[in-house]
Specification:
Blueprint (H helix, E strand, L loop, with lengths): L8 H40 L9 E7 L5 E9 L2 E2 L3 E7 L2 E5 L1 H7 L5 E2 L4 E5 H5 L9 E7 L4 E8 L12 E3 L5 E3 L20 H5 L8 E3 L2 E2 L8 E4 L18 E8 L5 E9 L7 E5 L10 E6 L14 E8 L6 E10 L1
Parallel strand pairs: 13-19
Antiparallel strand pairs: 1-2, 2-7, 3-6, 4-5, 4-8, 8-9, 10-20, 11-14, 12-20, 14-19, 15-18, 15-20, 16-17, 16-19
């Protein structure tokens, strides 16, 4: 008969104790591994999530027309705003009204970017049929739609209207350009930042998309019926100006190229309703810029002294050439007011 192995009781206790210690160690390692894996998955999930969109850092100024139902919002600093990414929410008399991205786009003349100095004019009475009185408070919220975060909040009251936006700005024409000389004028051509460097393409091509207007002076003698006229179409209320607001400096800037010295007696005129024929000569002879586009400046402070006189501001170019057709190319025109 085969006999079994008889172990002392003390040896059995030691074996059981050691076996228990190994189990505890393995269990601890497994639990630690599970925790590490769970933390890794959690971190991967968190970092994989898309963070909030950056809200544009833009300063806006808001005010309202005390005599009507119109609200104005001006881009006064910081980053430009893309119209497709913003909307304006108004709380008027406890009711919510939304001025959509498409509305902003159309208000800016179908421009996709809301740039520094540009003013939105929101006619609440015409759009929503609201009659706003001076005692009505208006809460205005400009929203960044991708992040759904506010770009700026404002509360407009009649007291707010006493604080006017600071005014030091170039204003380019926004109205119609009329050309009766057989040349070409498009409002888009003179609104961009001016360039005073030579570029033959600008004045030797007949492409009407070039970034300047074209005026053809009359032949042999001055003909006041052949001109190029720029309507600035300024509404002072869009800039927070009462009609009595007075200016310390008003300057007209024109960047142009005059082809050659054969162009004579190019006049620059501005419209003045107080004059018998409505027009005032700023110069009898526009200096020839035959090699490149250059700037000329005209101090209009004595002609435009208050905001009301801005409302009908127009500029007209007219002149004559010696028996052969010449051209004047205007690359940029703007009015500085402060």
């Amino acid at each position: 008969m085969r006999r079994g192995i008889n172990l002392p009781l003390s040896r059995i206790k030691i074996f059981r104790k050691n076996h228990s210690a190994v189990s505890e160690t393995v269990g601890t390692v497994l639990l630690l591994g599970i925790v590490v894996i769970m933390i890794s998955f959690s971190g991967a999930y968190i970092f994989a999530q898309k963070g909030p969109d950056d809200v544009p850092h833009t300063r806006l100024q808001e005010w309202r027309d005390s005599s009507g139902d119109t609200i104005y919002v001006k881009h006064s600093g910081g980053e430009p705003l893309y119209t497709e990414n913003c909307e304006i929410v108004l709380n008027i008399k406890g009711e919510k009204y939304v001025y959509s991205s498409e509305d902003i786009f159309k208000n800016l003349g179908n421009e996709s970017v809301w740039r520094l100095g540009e003013v939105l004019t929101i006619d609440a009475g015409n759009i929503w049929g609201i009659n706003i009185t001076n005692n009505d408070e208006i809460e205005l919220l400009v929203v960044d739609t991708p992040s759904k975060q506010p770009i700026q909040k404002a509360r407009l009251t009649k007291e707010y209207e006493t604080t006017r936006p600071s005014l030091r700005i170039w204003i380019t024409p926004r109205g119609e350009i009329i050309d009766t000389s057989g040349g070409y004028g498009d409002i888009r051509q003179i609104k961009d930042k001016d360039s005073e460097t030579p570029n033959d393409v600008l004045y030797n091509t007949k492409d009407k998309d070039r970034p300047c207007t074209v005026y053809h002076p009359s032949l042999s003698k001055l003909n006041s019926s052949e001109y190029q006229e720029f309507d600035f179409d300024i509404n002072p209320l869009e800039y927070g100006l009462d009609p009595e607001y007075t200016f310390s400096n008003v300057t007209l800037k024109i960047v142009y190229h005059s082809h050659d010295v054969a162009t004579k007696q190019i006049k620059v005129k501005i419209y003045d309703a107080d004059e018998p024929d409505g027009w005032v000569n700023l110069t009898e002879d526009l200096p020839p810029h035959t090699d490149t586009f250059k700037s000329e400046y005209y101090d209009l402070t004595n002609y435009i002294q208050n905001a009301e006189e801005l409302t009908c501001f127009k500029v007209r170019i007219e002149g004559w050439a010696e028996n052969i057709q010449k051209s004047v190319y205007i690359d940029y025109m703007a009015l500085w007011i402060e």
